[in-house]
């Protein structure tokens, strides 16, 4: 289940919704965007009536999600994921080219390919 809060909800009101979720025996997973906050419920939500949460004034809508991978789902996490690795941004609109074998056969193979990739400018 995913809860979409109204724009610019205060941290205090987000905590209030989180406490309601915890009281139902599931864990909240908060994703704060620039304008809107989305809270995913992680756990068995089959016995939770969405109307209990929909009546809260901070809530814009509640959506049942029956598909897998809720935490990676664009409905729950609409923003691109960008990871910073040693000052290099990977993800979103940042292009990352990764050199190497598709599988590891041996340590020697990995070292040889790493040296070749480095020599080529990777």
Automatic annotation (TrEMBL):
The keyword Lyase does not apply. Residues 1-67 form the DAHP synthase ferredoxin-like domain. Residues 83-121 form the DAHP synthetase I/KDSA domain. GO terms for molecular function: transferase activity. This is 3-deoxy-7-phosphoheptulonate synthase. SUPFAM superfamilies: Aldolase. InterPro entries: Aldolase_TIM, Class-I_DAHP_synthase, DAHP1/KDSA, DAHP_snth_FXD. Keywords: Transferase. It comes from the Bacteria. It comes from Thomasclavelia spiroformis.
């Amino acid at each position: 289940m995913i809860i979409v809060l109204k724009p610019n909800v205060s941290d205090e009101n987000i905590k209030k919704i989180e406490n309601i979720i915890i009281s139902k025996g599931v864990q909240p997973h908060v994703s704060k965007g620039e304008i809107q906050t989305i809270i995913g419920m992680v756990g068995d939500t089959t016995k939770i009536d969405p109307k209990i949460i929909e009546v809260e004034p901070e809530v814009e809508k509640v959506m049942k999600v029956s598909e897998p991978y809720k935490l990676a789902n664009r409905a729950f996490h609409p923003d691109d994921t960008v990871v910073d690795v040693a000052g290099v941004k990977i993800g979103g609109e940042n292009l990352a080219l990764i050199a190497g074998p598709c599988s590891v056969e041996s340590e020697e193979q990995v070292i040889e390919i790493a040296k070749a990739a480095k020599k080529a400018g990777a």
